[in-house]
């Protein structure tokens, strides 16, 4: 009975551990229980991101399993320089972008076209993007290029900072600011083409 209570207490304690502490325990003990905690914390978030990018439930389910396996195999490579959630997003994002590239044979998916990188003044307010109606948002996101859709989702849906987005995409913060600025311009143009006169 005491053994059972001790096991129960240690399990409830592990649920309050940070991701980094759980990773350290997994690497130290190789006990799958620790990875299960990470799986429970992140699999549904990963599935949601895969579904948004791949637009297919079955492909999103397969991708989630592949990504979780990739995370498991690479846990020892997690350096802790960025948040674990950013690292997970990076793996998820790159996996989905690769899948889209292969499917569409589209090399332009998130290849940066930024030739001049400057400190960017952004004239389009975040408020405009955030207040677009849901049915309109779906139409716009389906129409704008994948590269633009992805950075907008990272910024506005996931609330990621410019720094986190730059880590995920592997571009400088200035380049990300320019990318977001251009993505917002395309977003507004697409919105106006479809809905400017809508009541």
Question: Keywords, please?
Answer:
199 residues, mainly alpha, disordered N terminus, 72% helix, 2 domains, Rna Polymerase Sigma Factor, Chain: A
Strands, helices and their partners?
Elements: H1 2-14, H2 19-29, H3 32-54, H4 57-74, H5 84-104, H6 126-130, H7 134-143, H8 146-157, H9 162-169, H10 173-195
Helix content bin? over 70%
Count of structural domains? 2
**Average pLDDT, to the nearest integer?**
82
Order of helices and strands: HHHHHHHHHH
Annotated CATH architecture of the largest domain:
Orthogonal Bundle
What name does the CATH topology of the largest domain carry?
Rna Polymerase Sigma Factor, Chain: A
Q: Which residue ranges are poorly predicted, with pLDDT under 50 across at least 5 consecutive positions?
A: 2-10, 111-121
Question: What is this entry, summarized?
Answer:
The protein is 72% helix and 0% strand.
Q: Would you mind describing this structure in some detail?
A:
This protein has ten helices and no strands. The protein is an all-alpha fold. It has two domains: 2-104, Orthogonal Bundle (Rna Polymerase Sigma Factor, Chain: A), CATH 1.10.1740; 126-195, Arc Repressor Mutant, subunit A, CATH 1.10.10.10. The termini are far apart.
């Amino acid at each position: 009975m005491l053994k059972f209570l001790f096991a129960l207490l240690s399990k409830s304690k592990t649920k309050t551990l940070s991701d980094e502490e759980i990773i350290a325990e997994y690497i130290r003990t190789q006990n799958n229980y620790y990875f299960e905690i990470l799986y429970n914390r992140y699999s549904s978030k990963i599935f949601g991101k895969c579904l948004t990018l791949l637009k297919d439930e079955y492909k999103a389910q397969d991708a989630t399993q592949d990504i979780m396996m990739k995370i498991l195999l690479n846990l020892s490579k997690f350096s802790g320089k960025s948040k674990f959630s950013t690292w997970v997003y990076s793996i998820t994002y790159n996996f989905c972008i690769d899948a889209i590239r292969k499917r569409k044979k589209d090399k332009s998916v998130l290849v940066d076209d930024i030739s001049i990188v400057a400190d960017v003044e952004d004239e389009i307010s975040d408020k405009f993007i955030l207040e677009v109606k849901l049915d309109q948002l779906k139409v716009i996101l389906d129409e704008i290029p994948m590269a633009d859709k992805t950075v907008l989702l990272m910024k506005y849906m996931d609330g990621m900072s410019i720094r986190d987005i730059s880590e995920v995409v592997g571009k400088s913060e200035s380049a990300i600011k320019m990318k977001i600025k251009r993505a917002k311009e395309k977003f507004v143009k697409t919105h106006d083409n479809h809905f400017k006169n809508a009541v």
